[in-house]
Structures are given as structure tokens and as C-alpha cells.
Specification:
Keywords: ATP-binding, Kinase, Membrane, Nucleotide-binding, Phosphoprotein, Transferase, Transmembrane, Transmembrane helix, Two-component regulatory system. It is an enzyme of class 2 (transferase). The structure is a single chain. By secondary structure, the chain is of the alpha+beta class. It has 26 helices and 35 strands. It starts with a helix and ends in a 12-residue tail after the last strand.
């Protein structure tokens, strides 16, 4: 039904155009008499009833004469030879030799009142006389081209009847246009009616322009709001220039304030507006129906239109020198416009009839109106067929259709967006449910992984090798990070569902100083960045959950650090309308405007910017602020930085009174919390350093500048039967480390002079994660987690206030891990030593057997040396995997003495050994390397060689050098030995054992035919086993 209605409208538009083309539009006006032989009888015409009338019919015409009338009745007698009649409206074109003449009409009136004449198009200049008196003119009709001035403006003139008659004389000249004469009807009526008609025409034209201009403003504003839909911009510009073009027609309102402009200059404006209107309409069609258009064709047509604007719409000096015939210009113009019109009509028909595009009914109405409009404009332009407001009506119909089509598309888009929005909301709920369920499902196996890896670290299932334990530690750390991400997902879901409990209390906003001090250590050393706290000292208390406030501060400050490489991060606050406005301002990269409204969405991350995490930080922050009764927003400028501002309500009087009691009460529930909220009310002081012996064989070092916390930690660790040492500074802690054997350290992050972070870095230079576990004490748990993740300095963290049970679990777990690590290294050393023993015995017994056939005395001496080895070996098995260096030297000397008996003069032995050195090394470390030198270096040379053993004290430890001048080792074999790809146990086992020793080194140097040199560095002067753990 709807389609049939639009088809009927299109047929009506088409018929309307046909009637207008044949100039039958006057059937809608009252019928009236026509002039005959220069006389129009209106004596019976009732102007009050019938209104105005067109002065159509046969006028007298004096061709080739410009007659100025006077009161002499015989004025025209001398021009009778040129007298003829001519139809008005009409043109004489080339019917006469001279392109000028005089029109004359005598009108018989019903009465002698004042009448008006509304002059329309006259080509191309005219002067009107009423009863012999000049009443109006446009241009200057003249026989001389130099004097002649052309103008086709419309004007109104008035005159009074005399003797119930009015004589109308019009001089017309056309010296430079292809159409000449009175082209359009002259309207005649009473002065009042003519004035009304003139006013109505002006009002109609003004209304049309206002309508177009309103569409221009409306669609331009719509485009500026979104800046994405180009067809809205092109349609707005099309309406603008079409509106201006309308004002250059008929009443020519555009030129009211430019009355001195010549006709040529006015035509420039008219052509410019018309071509630009078509240009932007073509671009509009291209953008609106882009899938049906050809970009190259559109570019070509746009280029032609722009060239045509340059030629016809702008004064061109070249065209002043070479002026083509007007008809040629018109044909070229119609050709270019015709191509553009034709392509537009083709696209519209293709969209409406072939592709069946949405809103095809509107498209049919548009294409019909547009085609008919173009037809009337072309007929008027080429053949001067009079069309007045018919094209305006058609164009208005087309614009209404276009607006309806755009509105239809917007409506469909709105419906689609509404549908997608509802669908997205439903998917968002599905996403939340999926994340929650997935997080719950992940949490169980993750906790299993964490607990199992913890059990492996602690050695509950048996001691692991060192590499295995390091893998277990890595699995445990990664598992904890994944568990933290899962907890963040669950936490975000709880906040969104309103399931997060908050416990607001009056809080001093200056707690942010703790966060600033700790987060400072997350700033990369390469970043020239300062954290500036601009909080006034006299800020009132705010009513908020303290833990949630710390979380908000941390998230915003850390977010600023991530995206700011240099400059400042400034914190400021002010009180206004019962709220505190807190701002975190940075000088970072800034946020693009398109992302401003999305950065607080869950899981949202700006594309193209590398970022850690899941994109939950700002989302959680926003929700925490909102559940705390505040608001949060951000302002930003690319390249200059961002400012995050949030509000928190102030604590009122009743809330302040409610917390005048102590923050913690001695109840069973909170008796285990190790915190002192009111430091002024309870000042503890310890005479540090202090050491309290415990029954268990582990020593824990506690470092904290706050004596209240220090005393509580000391008492707590003492209650667990561990030996505890307490100091108040990082410097004291490092001094204690040099004098005492420490098994675990509890280290406060924020201390004066030397922070816990700095202490941790120094300790890690000497002791590995497994050798000396470190637990960081911090005010912000999230921050400590990041320190562990990013810096790798601490094994674990505890957030203040500290829970005794949690502290106990952490200590026991880390000490179990340390013990397991020590046991693993010992087991590995035992295994390697056990591997060497049979190999050594096999070679030694072969030597003794060989000697027994030659020399009994030397055989007894060799057996004495062998007994020395057995005694040392038995001592090793009965004690530990590390032995004094002097015992290993005794083994080496015993072995070389046996080999000396075997090789005789072919083996030379040299010793440079500092007998005062005291050090512990793994058993069977030097002897197998010396054996390698003898068996694979010296023995393979026919003339033998020398083995030299050097042991000396250096600044970095004990230096042991085994060198020979044997056959040497090929480069490929050296590579295999150092990368443990060889089966030579005499080399590999010592090499592997030394790798387990902290601060040890192993260097192999060899050249074929020249010999081999092995240099070993081991820690010296230590009589404990601490060096075997890392």
C-alpha cells in the first residue's frame, strides 16, 4: 500500500512537470481577455473580484526604434513603417535586423484608480513609460553597444488611469544575448494587489531560503556532533548553496544589498551557487549510496563541476580575451550538468529499483522530483520557457523526500542500535556470568597448583634438586599471580553486583603518604618523574573504608606512573559542598577523546598502547568510588597529560563522635591483629639491636623503624620459639648480616635513610631467594605483590596490620623451603661424589697392581697413600658434603704420589699451596680434575709432562689452579665439556658441584699440544655451609 501511494505521488509529479513544460500552468489562474492589435479591453474586469491579470496578447511593436512617448498624439506616425504586432510573452530572437525596439499597449480601464505593473524577465534591458511618463527601468536600453547596459531584474511600477485608459510603452534592447524581448508575462492590477503580490513573492522566497538554511544548520550540527557520517555534511552544504541559488532567482533577494552589481557579476554568483549545490548533492549521493557508486566516476564528475565553477562562476581574465558564443557556453554547461544529473538519477534508480534498497519508496519520489526539476531548469536555461515556482516546488519535494529518507535511515539505525544495545546488555550479563563461573572454576585448580608447589618447595614430598626447586618456586609465583588475576575478576564481579561490604570510618586522607612512599619504588629508574603531594595539612576527615581508599589511591597513582615517563604526578585536594575533591594529575601521554568515556569500562584497554593486566584497575576504582558515595571523572589532552578527580563525602559530627573510642578493642576476634592504631597513646621503645634466643634452630631478623611494630613482631616471633634479632634501620640490618647467620628476614618497606627496597637489593647481591627468604611488610598489599613481580627481590609480602596466624604460616613455609633447598644441594653433592668414587678406585687399584709386580716397597707406599684416601672418604660420609680444603689437598697429594710411582720420570709434579688458607669445598672436587690432567693430558705424551697445582688467597676468594703441559683439549671438546654434553665424569662432576656453590666460578683454558689450565674460585675463610644455598 505504501509503495503504491509513492508511485501515485511520482506520477503526479511527472504530470505536473509536463503541464509546466507546455506552459499550461496558467490554468490554475483566473481566465482573462488577451490584447488584440495593441489594445487590451479591461473595462468590464472586476479587479476586486478577479484579481490581477497578465498583459498577454498582441502588442504593437516598433522594431529597430526606441521611442520615447510624449503628449503629442502623432508621436508614433513617423515610425509606422516599422510597426507590427508581437505576442507577449514571447521573443523576437533574430526576426529583426536591429536587436532593439519599442512595445506599446493601450489598456481600457473600468475606472481611473492607481494601478501597478509587476515586470518580469525582459531581455536584456528595458525602460517603462506609463501615460508618457517614465515609471521604471532596468539596465539602459540603447542602440549603441558602448552605452547599452543589460539587466533582467524584476521590478514594479505604478501609474494612474486617465480617461479610463493607460498607455504602456516599453523600450527593449538586447545586444548580447541569444534571446530577446518580453520573455515573461507582465502582471497588471490595482496598486494594492500588485504590492501584495510582490510582498508574497518576497515572503515565499524568504521562507524557502529559511527552510534550506534551517536544514543546513540542522544537518551541520548533527555532523559536528558525530563527525563520522559525511553524507550529513554534504547534505547540509547542498542545502546551503541551493538556498543561496534560490535567492538569486525571481525576486533576487541575494542582491538586495548589492544593487550596484552588474548582470554579469550576478550571473557569476548564480552559476557558482548552482554548480556547488549540484557538486555537494553528488557527493551526498556518493556517501549515502556508496555501495552502488563508482568512486572514479564521482571524482571525474566532481572535477568537471569544479572546472565549470572556475569558468562560469569566477571572473576569468582569459575568458575576457576569448569569449565563446553564449549558446556554446550553455551547451557545455548543460552537458556537464546533464552528466552529473544523469549519474545521480542512475544511482537513485539503481538503489530503488534494482537493489531494492531500504526506503526505496522515498528514493523513487526523490529521483522523480530531481529528474523533473532538472528538465524544467534545462528548458528554461536553453529555450527560455517560463517556469517560475514550479522548479522550486519540485526541488522542495525532492528535499522533503531526502530528509524523509535520511530520517528513515536514522530511524532504522536507532532501532538497530536499540536492538544491539539490548543484545549487548544481555551479552554483558552473559560475560559477567561467564567470568564469574570461569573464575570460580579456575580458582580451585589454581589453589591446588599453589598448594602443591608450596609443598614441593617445603620438601614435604622429599628434597628436590636445586634446579627442580627453582622450578617449583617459579610455578608457585606464577600460580599466585594467576590467582591474583582470578581474584580481581571475582572482585570486579562482586562490586558490579553490589556484593562488596564496606566499613566506612572517619579517615585522614593523609594516609596517601604511605602509598606515595611505597609506590615511588615502582617508578623505573630511566623515568625522570616526581611524585608531588600538594594536600593541605588541615584537611578534615572523610567518611570511607580505609582499605578501599588505599586501593583507589594505589590504582590511580600506579596508572599515572605507567603512562608518564617524565615530569610530575601531582596529588591535590580541596573541600567543596560537603565533599572532598581529590585529583591525581600527570604529565603523561594523555588519553584520546574517543577513549575518555570508555576507560572506566571493565576489561577495556586502549589499542596500540602496551599495557599490563586485564584492564580492571580503573573499572574497580570507579566502582569503589561510587560505592563509597563519590564520583570519578577524567580530563585529558594528548601529549600533555591527564587528571583523574574523584569525590569522597566528609565525615559528619555523628560519625566523628561514634569513633572517639579506641580503634581496636581487646576481644577474642581481634586479639590476633598486630597493629597499634594510636601510636601517641602507646609508645614502645626497644634497645636495639636486640637478640632473643629461641629453642628452634632458625634465626629471624626483623627490620622496622617503628618500635611499636618492632616490639609486636619480636614478641610474636619469640612466641613461635625462633631466635629473633631486631634492628631499626637498613644499615643496622646489613651490619647484622655480616656478623650473624640469618635464616629469614622480615623487612619493613618504608624506613628513613635506607628503604626496605634498597636493603632487599643489597641482600640479593649476596644471597639468593632460596638461601635467605625475605618477607616485605607494607601498607598496601597490591603494591608489595607488584614489587615481587616486577623487581624479584622479595619472596613474599605481608600487609599491615599483620595477623599472627598468617605470619606463622608464612615463616614456617619459607623456612621449610630454605631447609628443602639446603637438603637438595647436599643430596646432589652426595650423588656426584658417589659417582666419582668407583671411577677413582678403579684407576688407583690398577696402578697398585702394576707396582706390585715391580717394587714391593713402592707398593706398600702406594697402599699407605690409598689408606689416606679411605680415611678422608669415611670422614666425609660421617659428617657433611663439604670438607676442609686441606683434606682435599691431602687426597690430591696421595693420588699424585701413586701416579708418580706409576709414571716415574715422565710425570713431574709442582705445588704452590698456601697452607694457611681455611675454606670448605665439595669433596672430590680437585682430585678428579688432577686425575684428568694426568690421564688425558700427560699420559698421552710420549715424553710425559708436568702437573702444577696452585692454591692462593685472593680478594674474591680462594683461587685454585690445575694446569698441565699435556696434549690439550680441542675447541669442540671444550664446548661439549662446558655445556655438559660430555660423558667424562672426572670433569663433569666437579664442574656440576661447583655450580651449586654461591659465588664460585670455573674457567677452562686449553690449546692443543700446549696444555690445559683450569681455574676455580671458591668462597674462602668460611667454616659454615651457607654458601651451598642460593
Amino acid at each position: 500500500m505504501k509503495r503504491k501511494l509513492f508511485i501515485a505521488i511520482c506520477i503526479g509529479i511527472f504530470l505536473f512537470t509536463i503541464i509546466s513544460s507546455f506552459n499550461y500552468f496558467n490554468i490554475f489562474q483566473p481566465n482573462g481577455p488577451d490584447a488584440k492589435n495593441g489594445v487590451l479591453d479591461l473595462s468590464n474586469w472586476d479587479f476586486e473580484r478577479d484579481g490581477n491579470i497578465n498583459l498577454n496578447g498582441e502588442w504593437q511593436f516598433y522594431a529597430g526604434d526606441l521611442i520615447t512617448p510624449d503628449n503629442n498624439p502623432h508621436t508614433y506616425d513617423e515610425y509606422t513603417q516599422n510597426l507590427t504586432t508581437i505576442n507577449v510573452p514571447g521573443n523576437w530572437n533574430n526576426q529583426y535586423t536591429e536587436q532593439y525596439g519599442t512595445y506599446r499597449l493601450l489598456i481600457k480601464l473600468p475606472n481611473n484608480e492607481k494601478y501597478g505593473f509587476k515586470m518580469d524577465t525582459i531581455r536584456s534591458s528595458s525602460r517603462l513609460f506609463i501615460n508618457g511618463v517614465e515609471a521604471g527601468a532596468k539596465g539602459d536600453p540603447s542602440k549603441n553597444m558602448k552605452i547599452h547596459q543589460f539587466s533582467n531584474e524584476k521590478y514594479v511600477a505604478y501609474g494612474t488611469g486617465e480617461g479610463l485608459e493607460i498607455e504602456v510603452v516599453i523600450q527593449v534592447a538586447n545586444l548580447n544575448y541569444h534571446v530577446a524581448g518580453i520573455i515573461s508575462p507582465i502582471k497588471f492590477g490595482t496598486s494594492k494587489d500588485i504590492e501584495i503580490s510582490k510582498t508574497m513573492d518576497v515572503m515565499l522566497e524568504t521562507a524557502l531560503f529559511a527552510g534550506y538554511f534551517l536544514l543546513f544548520i540542522m544537518y551541520l550540527v548533527t555532523y559536528l556532533q558525530r563527525k563520522r557520517i559525511l553524507y550529513e555534511l554534504y547534505f547540509s552544504l547542498f542545502c546551503l548553496f541551493q538556498g543561496f541559488y534560490i535567492t538569486t532567482l525571481n525576486e533576487q533577494l541575494f542582491f538586495i544589498k548589492m544593487s550596484n552589481l552588474s548582470l554579469l557579476d550576478r550571473s557569476y554568483f548564480q552559476f557558482t551557487f548552482f554548480h556547488l549545490a549540484i557538486l555537494f548533492f553528488l557527493l551526498f549521493i556518493y556517501e549515502f549510496f556508496k555501495q552502488y557508486t563508482n568512486k572514479k566516476v564521482v571524482i571525474f564528475l566532481c572535477s568537471l563541476l569544479i572546472v565549470e565553477v572556475f569558468i562560469e562562476g569566477i571572473p576569468n581574465p582569459i575568458l575576457l580575451l576569448v569569449t565563446p558564443p553564449i549558446m556554446v557556453e550553455k551547451i557545455v554547461m548543460v552537458f556537464i550538468l546533464g552528466l552529473s544529473y544523469g549519474y545521480i538519477v542512475y544511482i537513485l534508480l539503481k538503489a530503488a529499483l534494482i537493489k531494492k534498497a531500504e526506503g526505496s519508496e522515498y528514493i523513487l519520489m526523490i529521483v522523480t522530483s530531481f529528474a523533473c526539476y532538472g528538465t524544467l531548469i534545462a528548458l528554461n536555461f536553453l529555450f527560455e520557457i517560463k517556469v517560475k515556482y514550479e522548479p522550486v516546488f519540485l526541488f522542495l519535494t525532492m528535499v522533503i523526500g531526502l530528509s524523509s529518507l535520511i530520517g528513515f535511515r536514522h530511524q532504522r539505525a536507532f532501532i538497530e542500535v536499540d536492538r544491539l544495545s539490548k543484545e549487548l546488555l544481555r551479552f554483558d550479563e552473559f560475560k559477567d556470568d561467564f567470568l564469574v563461573k570461569s573464575s570460580h572454576e579456575l580458582r580451585t585448580p589454581l589453589h591446588g597448583i599453589i598448594n602443591l608447589s608450596k609443598s614441593l618447595m617445603e620438601g614435604n614430598k622429599g628434597a628436590l634438586k636445586k634446579e627442580q626447586q627453582e622450578v617449583a618456586v617459579l610455578i608457585h609465583t606464577v600460580g599466585k599471580r594467576l590467582a591474583k588475576l582470578v581474584e580481581d575478576l571475582l572482585y570486579a564481579g562482586k562490586i558490579k553486583r553490589g556484593e562488596v561490604n564496606i566499613s566506612p570510618t572517619p579517615v585522614n586522607v593523609h594516609i596517601v603518604e604511605e602509598i606515595i612512599a611505597e609506590v615511588f619504588y615502582l617508578i623505573p629508574t630511566s623515568n625522570k618523574l616526581k611524585l608531588v603531594n600538594m594536600f593541605p595539612s588541615n584537611l578534615p576527615l572523610i567518611y570511607v573504608d580505609e582499605y578501599k581508599l588505599k586501593q583507589i589511591f594505589f590504582n590511580l597513582i600506579y596508572n599515572a606512573i605507567k603512562y608518564t615517563k617524565y615530569g610530575e604526578i601531582t596529588l591535590s585536594a580541596k573541600v567543596q559542598n560537603g565533599e572532598m575533591f581529590i585529583s591525581i594529575t600527570d604529565t603523561g601521554i594523555g588519553i584520546e577523546e574517543d577513549h575518555i568515556n570508555q576507560i572506566f569500562d571493565s576489561l577495556y584497554q586502549v589499542k596500540g598502547i602496551e599495557s599490563e593486566g586485564l584492564g580492571l584497575g580503573l573499572s574497580i576504582t570507579k566502582q569503589l568510588v561510587e560505592v563509597s558515595g563519590g564520583r570519578i571523572w577524567v580530563t585529558s589532552e594528548i601529549g600533555k597529560g591527564s587528571c583523574f578527580t574523584f569525590t569522597i563525602p566528609l565525615a559528619n559530627e555523628s560519625q566523628l563522635k561514634a569513633v572517639e573510642k579506641p580503634a581496636y578493642f581487646p576481644t577474642e576476634k581481634n586479639s590476633m591483629l598486630l597493629a597499634i592504631k594510636d601510636k601517641e597513646a602507646s609508645k614502645a621503645f626497644l634497645d636495639v639491636p636486640v637478640k632473643i634466643e629461641g629453642k628452634k634452630g632458625y634465626t629471624i631478623l626483623v627490620v622496622d623503624d617503628d618500635h611499636d611494630n618492632l616490639k609486636i613482631l619480636v614478641n610474636s616471633i619469640r612466641s613461635l620459639d625462633y631466635t629473633v634479632i631486631a634492628v631499626e634501620s637498613g644499615v643496622d640490618a646489613l651490619e647484622i648480616m655480616g656478623n650473624e647467620s640469618v635464616d629469614l628476614m622480615l623487612l619493613d618497606l618504608m624506613m628513613p635513610n635506607m628503604s626496605g627496597f634498597e636493603v632487599c637489593k643489597i641482600v640479593r647481591e649476596e644471597h639468593g631467594l632460596l638461601e635467605l627468604p625475605i618477607v616485605i611488610l607494607t601498607a598496601a598489599g597490591q603494591l608489595s605483590d607488584l614489587i615481587i613481580s616486577l623487581q624479584g627481590g622479595a619472596n613474599d609480602f605481608l600487609q599491615k596490620p599483620i595477623n599472627l596466624e598468617e605470619l606463622k604460616v608464612r615463616i614456617e613455609s619459607l623456612l621449610s623451603m630454605k631447609e628443602s633447598s639446603r637438603e637438595a644441594v647436599k643430596n646432589e653433592l652426595d650423588f656426584l661424589s658417589a659417582q666419582i668414587t668407583p671411577h677413582f678406585l678403579y684407576n688407583t687399584f690398577n696402578t697398585i697392581i702394576g707396582l706390585s709386580y715391580k717394587d714391593e716397597e713402592k707398593t706398600r707406599e702406594a697402599l699407605q697413600y690409598l689408606s689416606t684416601y679411605f680415611r678422608a672418604k669415611l670422614d666425609f660420609n660421617g659428617q657433611d658434603c663439604l670438607i676442609p680444603l686441606e683434606n682435599e689437598i691431602e687426597l690430591v697429594k696421595a693420588y699424585l704420589s701413586i701416579e708418580k710411582m706409576r709414571f716415574g720420570n715422565r710425570l713431574n709434579i709442582e705445588y704452590e699451596i698456601d697452607e694457611t688458607i681455611e675454606a670448605l669445598i665439595p669433596s672430590m672436587t680437585i682430585q678428579p680434575l688432577v686425575e684428568n690432567a694426568v690421564q688425558h693430558g700427560i699420559a698421552k705424551k710420549s715424553n710425559g709432562g708436568t702437573v702444577k697445582v696452585t692454591i692462593e688467597k685472593t680478594t674474591v676468594g680462594v683461587k685454585i689452579v690445575i694446569e698441565d703441559d699435556g696434549v690439550g683439549i680441542p675447541i669442540q671438546k671444550q664446548y661439549e665439556l662446558m655445556n655438559e654434553r660430555s660423558t667424562r665424569l672426572g670433569f663433569l662432576n666437579p664442574y656440576r658441584k661447583l655450580k651449586l656453590i654461591e659465588k664460585s666460578s670455573f674457567l677452562l683454558e686449553s690449546k692443543e699440544s700446549e696444555g690445559t689450565k683450569i681455574t676455580i674460585i671458591v668462597p674462602g675463610g668460611e667454616n659454615d655451609e651457607s654458601s651451598i644455598n642460593r
